[in-house]
Each structure stands twice: as C-alpha cells, then as structure tokens.
Amino acid sequence: QLFDEEEFDVPGHSHGFRALAASGDLVYCSNSDIQLYMDPKNKTLTTLKHLFVEMAQLFDEELFHLGCDETGTPGDCSLASTKQLEVELIKHISSIGKTPVGWEEVLYSTAAASKSTVIDAWNHHNSGQSTGLGYHSIDSSQDSFYLNYVTLSYEHQWVDIAAGMDDKQRALLLGGEISMWTDNYCYITQCTRPGSPVAHWMFNRTQDATFLQSIGGMVWPRGIAAAGSFWNYDASLSATSAEFLSRYYAQNDRLAARNIAVCPNGCKCDEVSRCGKPYPQLHDSHDHQQHSPRLVV
User: Fold this and answer.
1) CB proximity list for 176: less than 8 A, separation 6 or greater
2) Cis? peptide before 11, omega within 30° of 0
3) Which of 45, 226, 252, 273 might form a disulfide with 157, Cβ 3.0–4.6 angstroms?
4) What is the structure's pLDDT at 296?
5) Residue 76 · residue 29 · CB < 8 Å
6) Measured CA angle at 188 (ends 183, 193), to 5 deg
7) Nearest in space to 117 (alpha carbons), one of 103, 99, 130
8) In what order do the strands lie in the sheet with 118-121?
C-alpha cells in the first residue's frame, strides 16, 4: 500500500511562513526566523489550524505529517512552549479526521505525541524502539533511506526494516519512507542563509530540464532497492548477488523505458554529474531568487 502523505513541517524548519509573520498572522521565536512560537495571543496556533484544515481538504489520505523535527529553545521559545504548540496541533489534526504523524522528536524530545501519533523514525531512534513503546511507526532511517546522501549505495537501501521486531511490533510498523532532500539545489544554503550549495545554479527555472535529470538520477535506481525492502524484503537475497543486480538493473531499465529520469545502470550520479560527466549549465541573466523553491520528498 502506498500512502500519499501531506506535510507541514512545524514548528521548526518554518522559513516559508515568514510572509505571514510580517503580516502579523503568526510569531517566530525571538532571534529566529526558523522556529515558530506558541505566542500568548495564539496567533501562531490559530493560523496553523486554518492552514491545516485547508491542506487536509486537498488530500484524501488519512495521514497528516506535521514535522516537529529539529526544534530548539531560541529566544523566548522554551521546551514547554514548543511542546504546547505541538500538542495543540496534534489534537487539531485528530479533530479534523486525520492521523497525526511526526518525526521522532515529537516523542523523544518534546514528548508531545499522543498515542495516536505515528512516529517517523529517522535519526537517533529506530522504528523498533517506537513500536516497542506501542506507537505506529514509519522507518525513515537516514543511514539507509536519505537519497541526498550520495555515499549511500543501493546496498544500504536493501535492509529489513522489521528486523528484531515481534509480531505485535510488526503490526504497528506502517512501512518505510525514502527522502530526497533538495537543500543542495537551493540558491542559498538551506534556502535561508548566504552560501552556494553545489547545485544552486539548477534553482533557476531555465535549468528545469537539467534539474529533472539530476533529481531523477539521485532517486533512481536506489529508490528501487528501498521499495523492494519495504514491499517484500528477502533475507536470502544478497544485495551483492548476481540475481539481485539482475532484478535491480532490469527494473531500472523499465523506468527508463517509460521516460523516467534515472541514473544509468553501472554509473554513479550525484547532483551535478552523471556517469562522470558534469551536467551542462545554461547561463541566464535572471536572478535565481526570483524563482520558486523546489522540494522533493
């Protein structure tokens, strides 16, 4: 089963709401334009509730991801105020008929998770731990399924995400998720700070064709191995075996035959090169900052 999961990443990673802060519709932590604040007048909470309702109406899927990762205590934001904001948003998501999902910090950092919250395990904790505590879980381990890490080969994606779980835990494991974070395609560092990430020039819309090839080569064929792990992991099939490679390459060929951008079999691809050859840059006089950001997950 495939889940079509919408996500608003709050209260951290909330750079995209800065226009609403300028109009007074929500509030950031003091000394921060990244993390949202549970202000005494509830401006932030009220605005986010309205946005969540609007987003929920666009998707039929039951799961609604609200982020909750990598928050801190900048300025007037405390652990308690951040937890309060997350708790209220989780209640709101449940009240509009959706199941809340949060990155692992919602359970292990702020402890805002309700028992109905699905835990998306990605960093310091794994899905075995969260299912062991009785929570539904998704395995998004950065050590296996973060495809923006070019050093992770297909062998890292071929893994049993239910390893070590008993039957009760397996019933709580919803599956796995691969992520292709596009920080390196932003025209500035993480789309917020001065700097030039390696593929920043592809942010310009004149580079769309090149961006398509680049992002496709980052996802495929490694995403094939991850999908196989989620769908039907077979411990008897080694990722280094000829049989595995035969299936892996054949599936990649099927994608390519459908005009899906892939990294060719036997090649290495990263954001700026394919099979050892740099992607061509089309020079354009337009300001990169005039173009909308890209996000692929």
Assistant:
1) 138, 139, 140, 145, 161, 226, 229, 230
2) yes
3) 226
4) 40
5) yes
6) 100
7) 99
8) 6-10, 63-67, 99-103, 118-121, 137-139, 173-176
Buried b (16+ CB within 10 A) or exposed e, 56-90: beeeeeebbbbbbbebeebeebeeebbbebbbbbb
Question: Which residue type sits at 4?
Answer: D
Do the Cβ atoms of 216 and 202 come closer than 8 Å? no
User: Residue 1: what pLDDT?
Assistant: 66
Look at residue 34 in the predicted model and tell me its pLDDT. 92
* Single-letter residue type at 214: S
Q: How far apart, in whole angstroms, are the C-alpha atoms of residue 183 and residue 107?
A: 26
Rounded Cα distance, 275 and 266, in Å: 8
- Tens digits of per-residue pLDDT, 129-139? 999 999 999 99
Tokens coding 213: 């090839």
Q: What is the pLDDT of residue 188?
A: 81
- Angle (CA) 256 178 213, round 5°: 35
Distance CA 91, CA 114 (A): 8
Question: What does DSSP assign to residue 164?
Answer: T
- Could you count the other beta carbons within 10 Å of the beta carbon of residue 242? 8
290 half-sphere exposure, CB direction, 13 A CA radius: 6
CA distance 191 to 297: 16
Rounded CA separation 107/120 (Å): 10
In sequence order, the 6+-apart residues with CB closer than 8 A to the CB of 95 are none
What's the burial of 294, exposed, middle or buried (CB within 10 Å: 0-12/13-18/19+)? Answer: middle
Residue 211, classed as helix, strand or coil, is helix
- Identity (one letter) of the amino acid at 277? K
Which ranges of the chain have pLDDT less than 70? 1, 3, 283-297
b/e map 101-122, b = 16+ CB within 10 Å: bbbbbbbbbbebbeeebbbbbb
Q: Tokens 């560092």 appear where?
A: 189
**pLDDT score recorded for residue 293:** 45
